Amino acid sequence: MKQHFKQLLRKGCLLALFLTTVGMQGLYAQQAVTGNVTDGDGVPVPGANIVIKGSTTGTQSDFDGNYTIEASSEDVLVFSYIGYATKNITVGNQTSINVQLAEDASQLEEVVVIGYGTTKKKDVTGAVSRVTAESFENQPLTRVDEALQGRAAGVTVARANGAPGAGIKVRIRGVNSITGNNDPLVVIDGVLGGDLSTLNPNDIASMDVLKDASATAIYGVRGSNGVILISTKKGTGKGKINVDFFTTVSQVQNYLPTLADNVGEFARIENLRKLSIGQNPTFTDGEIAALDSNGGTNYQDEILRTGFSQNLQISTSGSEGKIRYFLSGNYRNEEGIVINTDFQQLNLRSNIEAQVTDRFKVGLNIFGSRGEKKNNFESFGNGQGSLIAKALTWDPSTPVYDANGEYNRRSTRGIGSLNLNPVLTLNETQASDVDERLSATLNTNYKITDNFSYSLVAGTQVNNYNVQRYTVEGDNDTPDANFSTNKFTSYQMSNIFTWQNLYNDKHDLKITGVHEYSNQKNERNTYNADNLLLPNGFYFAETAAGFSISNNLVPREILSFMLRAEYILANNLSITATGRYDGTSVFRTGKKWGFFPSFAAGYNVINPSDDSGFVSSLKLRAGWGQVGSQAIDPFGTYANLGNNSYAYEGGSPSPGTFITSFANEFLSWETTSQTNVGIDFGFNDSRGNFSLDGYKKTTSDLLLSVPVSGTNGGGNVNQNIGAVENVGIDIALGYDIIQNDNFNWNANLAMSFVKNEVTELYGGLDQIDGEVQVPGGQARVANIIQLGEPLGQFQGATFLGTWKSSEATAADAVGKKPGDAKYLRDADGEIAFGAIGNGMPTLTWGFNNTISYKNFDFNFFINGSHGFDVYNLTQAQITGGAGDSRSFLASDQINQWTPSNETDIPATVQLYNSSRYIEKGDFIRLSNLTVGYTLKDLDWLGGANVKIYGGGQNLFLITDFTGYDPESSSRRANEGNADVAPGINVGAYPIPRTFTLGVKVGF
Fold it and tell me: What angle do helix axes 263-276 and 285-294 make, rounded to 10 degrees?
């Protein structure tokens, strides 16, 4: 019996073991799991990775998004794809699993580029503004400044003029340097030294603007004027093709009223002017009657026209397996509103990125651009102003052509502007400015461990800027030719090491180390051919009576080391500390190296991850940092020589050299220190956001060119003397006013206030002269730099109206008579010249609105600028000053002073530079209004979406300024830093109003 029991027990155990084994085999049995992977729109995602979590077993989806994988019921499948949020799904008893991947919101919205890396928006400690493509995608753009303007608090963007291909002026939190360049550093995909004017706005995914020193210190000497980090687009998902074509019609917003519209009155007033200076009248009564009947020639009408432009942009993007791509091309053909001025540009971009292994990623970006300006407006003009100024002051009684159909080269009566006929100058000039650029960037990243990675950014740029000009504007009415070639080459290598670890789910520490070397070289060669004997074009330059040749070399090297530590405590407290050590070839031994530190902290009083009701986030920030500037020429610490010829002992002239500037081996860095405090506030479940930043920025040891007295040899010497301070507030407010399935309305307001002040000058001076000369041969300076005042001070006389008949004795005492202009005078009876206005805005803002209703979308963008003046020297020339434009052409001259009508409009020649021509520049502009309608999923077009849109740009302008546009300015070349003389207008190219019609097609 006992033996039988043992046998039964043995058989029972064996049976139990068998059943358990079978059960375990069933539990871990592999089964085929199939399914489909799609994106948020239900479009198949080819090349998605499907991996069993914790193993190397995996597969990829095919072209239609389908996949098959062997997995057990307890396995977890990890679905991932570049640009999409990773999704984990337990298999269980499922044999078919379909997955829809959502775009990675952390990549698209919450992650901010901070230089040499990224961080979550909630962890940002410095003052950073972000502009994404979504904010300007409904606005037809040809220039990056149009995308940036008014959308980032603390960033001022202005168009110097409306010429085709005109430059872009961007300033971040005011102006630092008096003699140096105040342009911000532009970093495109990690490569320093980008150019906004050549970039295609449609290539931009986002722009992150680093504004305070705690954020910009990572770029050291490069970051003194702020940093704009641009990330270009990368492809995701199924391949897509986008085509955008729009055409524009451009016109001047308003013509300036002049006596060219009433030539008879012009002739009468010209006769009075001649009589007042003791000369015979110019016009007879019969000639005046004929002008009253037949009119004359308005040269403003002759040189302005309606311009037609086209813009074509094509891009394709997507991903195949582990490769993502974005390819684009842009052709822009812009016809200027001034005759014979045009601009053409072609851009090509290729962004390729490959996830070679789970740990190694590599990307290659190549960008090429060719732009050509025809008759670059900035190259025209001399001491008498631009061609706009010359057209406004040209004799309207002289027609463009004579009886034989030939140009009237000068006024037939020797009145008005004595310059060459502006229509002739524009039509007969052949000028071509060609800008060719090629850049390549290699980005690699290798994860050495899960916590430690290495990135390499290697970039190179080649830029050839060639200028070829043939002009008939020579002083002797004979053609001149000019050619110059500017070759700029640079390369950069950045080695970036990043280590990050999370301790106890509470302490997040990230350390970034950078070693960087950059080298750039600019070579220029120029020749000028004066007075061509054969007026048949540029290629007859060898027939010129005189030649001059010049060349220049500008090399520069920078070696840098940077260390940044980021610490986050309990997902609330964020601390960032940075130190950068820069060495430059510009300064001498012992002064080459500079150290630039920064520190910033932020605390989330209310964390975005917490459910706290109406207030969704609240963060306090504070930071301090220093950055440097090397804003001098590479040989600025050495003595420079000029050349001239001198006849010694009455013999033939012999060539020689003389010192133009003296050496200063102790010259060192210009340093900017900045303190920033800020608050970020999110509300109503993150539908609204508000940011407020206050800052104080002081630039000391300014690199100034100081004059040397004649007794010590004359010339100048560069010194570290002077200081400038900027204090300001940045405000940003955004809100999704309406959010539902059919109707959405998003509004964003960006506002910046800044007060600039010169706090120190050299030699104990309280002011120094600027370099902008008033036109008309009066040899007076239009701008000054004053201690205790903002940069941008205008200089001139204070206009007090006219001398009246009752003041005849007082007027005679200073050599004047009733009807003459009256100015404020000093104790010695001399006209008192001083500050009469300022061209630096104190408040700028932009208000952007995007509205969508079903298939309709609507965008309008309004911006404004306040607290500045314009020195309207164009109006001074029209009014009749001196030099070559003495005739009166201002329409209000009809009401000039007479013994029986004693107005404050002088009847005689007056000063150009006086407060009479200072005008308030404040303006509000409707920069864009666009309406679009999208036709979706068109079967006859392969399921494509087609958007048809139309609108206008610069549609209205609210301002008291009497010229074309208060934002535009102009001055001659080589007249100093533009930021020291903003708001001076001597015939700037008008900023046009444009109307746009376009179509977008997405396949």
Answer: 150
pLDDT of 9: 41
Q: Residue 228 CB: number of other CB atoms within 10 A?
A: 26
Rounded Cα distance between 715 and 661, Å, is: 5
3-state secondary structure of 846: strand
**Interstrand relation of 342-355 and 31-38 (parallel, antiparallel or unpaired):** unpaired
Strand locations in 538-683, DSSP E? Answer: 544-569, 573-584, 593-606, 615-629, 640-647, 653-662, 670-683
Closest CA to 332 of 317, 348, 354: 348
28 dihedral zone (left: phi>0; alpha: psi -120 to 50; beta)? alpha
Tell me the whole-structure pTM to 2 decimals.
Answer: 0.85
Find out whether 748 and 733 touch, Cβ atoms under 8 Å.
yes
d(CA 670, CA 705): 13
Domain positions in the chain are 13-103, 106-237
Residue 99, both tokens? 């997955």
- The C-alpha atoms of residue 345 and residue 831 are separated, in whole angstroms, by 50
Q: Say how far apart CA 217 and CA 629 lie, in whole Å.
A: 12
Sheet holding 653-662, edge to edge: 640-647, 653-662, 716-720, 703-707
In this structure, what DSSP letter does residue 486 have? Answer: E
CATH superfamily assigned to domain 13-103: Carboxypeptidase-like, regulatory domain (2.60.40.1120)
Summarize pLDDT for 829-852 with one digit per residue, the tens.
Answer: 999 999 999 999 999 999 999 999
Strands (E), 407-451: 430-447
Q: Which CATH number fits domain 106-237: 2.170.130.10, 3.20.10.10, 3.30.450.40, 3.40.470.10?
A: 2.170.130.10
Q: Which helix (H) or strand (E) holds 362?
A: strand 360-374
Which tens digits make up the pLDDT trace of 541-566? Answer: 878 878 888 888 889 999 999 999 99
Percent of the chain with pLDDT over 70: 91
CA distances for 484 relative to 198, 342, 425, 431, 487, angstroms: 20, 20, 21, 12, 10
C-alpha to C-alpha distance for 993 and 206, rounded to whole angstroms:
27
3-state class percentages of the chain: helix first, strand second, coil last, to nearest 5: 15, 50, 35
